[in-house]
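DATA SHEET
Item: assembly model
Revision: 1
Owner: S.N.
Input lines:
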Amino acid sequence: MNNTEKQIFENKKINEQFVLYRHPSGCNIYICEKPEYSSTYACFGTKYGSVDNKFRIKGESEFTEVPEGIAHFLEHKMFEKEYGDVFSLYAKTGASANAYTSFDRTNYLFSCTDNFKESFDILLKFVQEPYFTKESVEKEQGIIGQEIEMYLDSPGSRLLFNLLAAMYKNHPVRIDIPGTVESISHIDYKLLYKCYNTFYNLNNMFICVAGNIKADDIIEQVNSNLKDAAPVQIERGSFDEPQEIVDSYVEQKLAVSLPMFAIGYKESCGSERRTLKDKIYTSLLMEAIAGESSPLYKRLFEAGLINDKFGADILDGYGYFASIFEGESSDPRAVLDAINEEISRVRRDGIDADEFERARRRYYGRLIMRFNSVDNIAEMLVQCAISDTLLYDDIEICAAATADDINKHLKSVFNTDNCSLSVILPAGE
Amino acid sequence: MAVQTIEIAPGVTGRYIPAQQFKTTRITVQLLTPLNLKTVSRNAMLPFILTRACKAYPDLKSLNSKLASLYGAALMADVSKIGNMHSLAFTISSINDKYALDNSSVAGECAKLLISMLFNPLLDGARFNEKLFESEKRLFLERIDGEINEKRRYAISRAENIMCETEPYGISKYGPRAMAQGLTSGELYLAWEELLKTAIININFIGDGDPAPVYDAFKKAISSIERLPLSAVDQSVSHEISGKSVTERMAVTQSKLVMGFKSDITCKSELYMPAVVFCDLYGGSPHSKLFQNVREKLSLCYYCAARYNRSNGIILVDSGIQEENAEHARSEIIKQLDEIKSGNVSDEELSASKAALTDSAKSVNDSQYAMDTWYGQRSLDGDIVSPHQFAEMINNVTKEQVIEVSKHFNLDTTYLLAPNGGNSDE
């Protein structure tokens, strides 16, 4: 092993460290040793998600456009092999295995306490062995069809996807991750191979492991299992996304008790992703403006306009960055008006220094709490692989942030003219 | 280090679960009382109102500001059913002192806060502060109404209500809406007084610190109360098979099928461990009969799972399907149980279930939440089996035992939550 390829990063504030090993194929391997835990969480993923539906590889003249939901469909089909299904292999080791597809990634994972080496072998092998047939694609359409229907009844999922469709005109973040029953009917095994051969190239992939393992053992096992392949250079289609939102309001009726709302501010982004600092400053602002200890939260709560489901989050990736407040309310528009009014007020008066300090402490404490589980640590490493950041950057940015910093940052976010409101209304009203 | 248990007061047990690997300390106070229709609503509302304000932090802003300054300490209330007992839990979780930016004492402050929330609520004489009560009542009603939002969980809870409709376990954990609607601040005060006097109380301390100050503070706080703890009631349900089949309709796209099987095998039975293995093999893992057949072979669903209630011996199987496939799924779910009953269990299936169950038990100690849940759910067991002991016991289960135990499970209730437009029946 070449030592220059292995780097150790540590953070003394929280007494944590991890290893980054850059495999010659371009696949980065992130490892966090946690000998005081019994279990290990390992994953092997690709920077390929629902937004990657228009692409070409270097040398091709035309872009390929693929049906909505194909990345997720491909994830399901990776578990089926000529010899049967991958779960039957894990059944022998006792590992709990799974996979998921989101906007910008597909990730295969398992966690276990015993037989790690055997399970890791299964993971490394099966993700590198595609096996798609006409029959197996048809069989999966029924299963995924039911998964899609399940999400159609999930108010939280509808709330978010309706919001994204109201905010983004062209960016594929606006489409449902699993696609529709109609869109997945256009998927065939040839298209699956096309996507696999493009995006499941080691150059576009990552491996993250956290738990009761040794970094050198992981590196050795990875080195003996990763297949040689020429790197593929992927060119993704441009998003051509305007600055403006599509609709300021969208609603749907579902069987819910109270109206649910999501308020999204479409932040300027271009085709790149915004920096981690932008993300943390925006989170701190959301915490200071509408967090549980803010005056606004108290006002809304006491007026009966929100309940304890109220919260804030950021959704970001290449070409999108949305600051979202969501919750339940008998009057979503009144909540929207109150938030916009508060944003105007703090823009004028600045964030109060005490308010900022409470927001910073709360956020800082929550960042540390994520290090409580090996699952979380491994998933945070995945986020590092996707966004090309380092594990403790957010803690350092948060610790160093000042009220001045975020007051300056406030000028660049929460444009109230670029804001959409998505509402789920109780069916029958 | 092993788990250490001490008696703090009559019916009040402190349980110290040492765990050095975490960044946080987690303290849970659990109150256990028999489930009954008369007290269920007021008891269920109590954890929420007690964690919303107290004398020292009388409103949302002051309490939440305190929690934020304690590095986002999380104060949580939880209500659940353990067989025929109502479990009311109060939890505080906070970062350990060494991670604070300013060397402040976070964990100790949090423990004090939790105890003062329990013992010094915001009262007006013999009632809760009216403004606090009215605000909390709105939230409590919204919580009850909001149960329909998550259809899978809602269908399971409806199936349980229908299956055990004449028994304590058939009472919803928050009680009927009409009763919540009629609650008064005086009744809630009575519930608080009554529970501190009579509930079985457990304090779980999970973390790196010293639990003694927490126990001492609790002991001091409870010393003025004359403790008359109730004993736990019988956990089982009637074993009579009703054969009920109920369809309810709602504005949904996908139907949810829930099938309830009764048995006489609970955590107190000889065949308890085989029942755990049986449930996994039937519908607990991707290699299980239900996953392999209802999902993989027949493509009827995305999920089809079985879960076993250790307190009362009920297994619930649930699946999200299209309504026209409900009968097909139902008969396949029964067929797969019959397969096990007739002895069709391979060595691979058995060892896969044992491996999955032991692996997951051994990982309990890697999460404070999982540890808290493990000991909380077993708090009526007397001697609690640790996750590692449990894993060893799983390994002793034989195929013959699994087949034998499967014969104890019989279908009692079939519940279907289906889209509007079709026929409802009972």
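QC remark: Residues 75 and 424 of chain B are 42 Å apart (CA to CA).
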